[in-house]
Design brief:
Length: 201
């Protein structure tokens, strides 16, 4: 094996057999200009800034803004000691969706999948709740229009899917159920209520 071949084996990520002949730090420093420049903390420009003992040696300063009122009891990640100085209040948490979201913030870290899955569940509950309440107020959603069928008109909807590798063809069959399941549930509940009332009469 030539010297060039030996050097190439040093750069292969995975070697099944044999021991890698890795070059030493001095060899790498001689071969690659600037290699290992950050190994010595004294050479790192960020060290004084990141060091707790440095204090204000870098001249960086920050004054905490005045805390927005109403922060007590607000949802926040458990990694944080308090809410941010400014936070949004346009969409306060309400109902069952709010209970689920508060539990996600109170119980799980943002690094846990459960935290984000509960937030997604809370979002779905919120959507379903608003669809039911809007229907009861006489402003139901446009269930047909929301399926996107209007955009399909005149765009060869059948031919464009036959023999195609479009990824949306795999879930097209379930789209009406995903969009309309709150309406189906609400209709079922309404039907049960009407039947019970009629039976009592």
């Amino acid at each position: 094996m030539s010297r060039e071949d030996e050097e190439m084996t040093d750069h292969i990520a995975y070697i099944a057999d044999g021991k890698r002949n890795a070059p030493s730090a001095d060899e790498l420093r001689a071969r690659i200009p600037g290699w290992g420049s950050d190994l010595d903390p004294a050479d790192r420009p960020s060290v004084p800034k990141l060091s707790r003992e440095a204090g204000s040696a870098t001249g960086a300063h920050w004054v905490r803004p005045e805390q927005q009122p109403g922060g007590t009891g607000r949802e926040r990640s458990i990694e944080h000691a308090h809410v941010t100085p400014v936070f949004g209040t346009a969409q306060p948490l309400r109902g069952l969706a709010g209970v689920v979201r508060r539990y996600a913030y109170r119980r799980f870290s943002e690094g846990r999948l459960a935290h984000w899955m509960l937030l997604v569940v809370g979002d779905r509950i919120d959507v379903a709740t608003h669809r039911v309440t809007d229907a009861l107020r006489g402003r139901p959603d446009d269930l047909i229009g929301e399926t996107g069928i209007g955009a399909e008109r005149g765009k060869r909807p059948i031919a464009s899917r036959l023999g195609s590798t479009r990824p949306d063809t795999h879930h097209t069959w379930m789209d009406p159920f995903v969009v309309n399941w709150p309406a189906v549930v609400a209709g079922g509940v309404l039907l049960l209520v009407v039947r019970r009332v009629l039976r009592r009469r």
